[in-house]
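Q: Hi! New to this. If I give you a protein sequence and the SMILES for 2-acetamido-2-deoxy-beta-D-glucopyranose, can you show me the bound structure?
A: Yes, paste them in.
Q: Okay, here:
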Amino acid sequence: MLGQIILLATAAFFNLLVFVHAQEIDTYDLLMPNVWPHSDELYLCTPIRISPRTSYYITGFKPNATMHTAHHMLLYGCSEPGSNDSVWSCGEMQSNGVDQIYNTANPCRAGSQIVYAWAKDAPSLQLPEGVGFLIGKDSPIKYLVLQVHYMHKFPVGKTDNSGVFLKYTKTRMPRQAGVILLGTGGVIPAHAVEHMETACTMREDKVLHPFAFRTHTHGLGTVVSGYVVHQKESGDVWSLLGKKNPQLPQMFYPILDTSPIKQGDVLAARCTMNNTRSHTVSIGSTNNDEMCNFYLMYWVENDTPLEQKYCFTPGPPYYYWTQARENFNRIPDLEASTL
Ligand SMILES: *[C@@H]1O[C@H](CO)[C@@H](O)[C@H](O)[C@H]1NC(C)=O
Ligand SMILES: *[C@@H]1O[C@H](CO)[C@@H](O)[C@H](O)[C@H]1NC(C)=O
Ligand SMILES: *[C@@H]1O[C@H](CO)[C@@H](O)[C@H](O)[C@H]1NC(C)=O
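A: Thanks. Here is the predicted structure of the protein with 2-acetamido-2-deoxy-beta-D-glucopyranose bound:
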């Protein structure tokens, strides 16, 4: 018998996910509830609360959006959502923005991690056989929060249902999926090519099997590359996980080197930015600002994903690989910035 979803309105605000008889893969529609994007560059968030009595595994994501409407969508896992409203304004750097219609809050109040990301008409993502994102009872992810960054103000009366169809199962998956997001802050001088770089040594005693990566910048990014660095006495070995032109569809692409990543290995990413404008561009949330992101999706076998969900540095001019505490050598300077 196929599983079915029963939605219960709880506490007047949340939809409580209850899955019944779900041996099979089922679908949950996580869509914006007829929102009205009433201004340009609006970020809106909507939550679902996962039933705390059951564990579920998300095995795939089917986006339901177009790049004409949505600049990007992010799916956050949270232990606590940023707000108890059914919709709120959730621009990362708009804390001073007072919205006339929606309250303002972060996507998550606690336990923030990225589960899925979409932009530029990227197609569906199906996780490998036996791999799933654990949510609910045995997971720190008690809520999923969908964030949509709308490009433009909608006409009065026109509402939106962008979102993601989630493929899920109650069947235990032996391999749990996780995402670590590498990124930077920083500034790009006018008429200059700049490298935005980050690196983190893996401290946790886990074996990661990387399988997908995604890059994200706004208009100035030309190449984003991600590496795992094995630091040996004979010198650093930089192994390319993936690199992409971020102006192509920003989907999850297969990892080039799927060798396991172990404790002591270093994850590193670089965004090469070409600022053709006549003013400095900073990292920020609007389309006039920039972003430098490399998402690494991996699975762990009979283990839980990394506690570490983010690897960020202040970026240029404060941080470069050449000044990293890892004391890198053999930096693949040319390879990291060319396609
Ligand atoms: C999303 O899906 C719903 C139906 O489930 C559809 O009515 C709507 O137009 C879709 N939105 C977009 C942006 O594709
Ligand atoms: C949401 O409601 C719960 C229960 O009333 C409360 O404990 C929590 O602080 C609220 N969260 C926010 C973000 O206001
Ligand atoms: C930066 O952009 C300019 C203008 O499009 C182009 O001429 C130049 O070759 C680019 N530089 C790099 C390093 O991509």
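A: The pocket of 2-acetamido-2-deoxy-beta-D-glucopyranose (ligand 3) is lined by residues 193, 222, 274, 276 (CB under 6 Å). Let me know if you'd like me to explain how to read the tokens.
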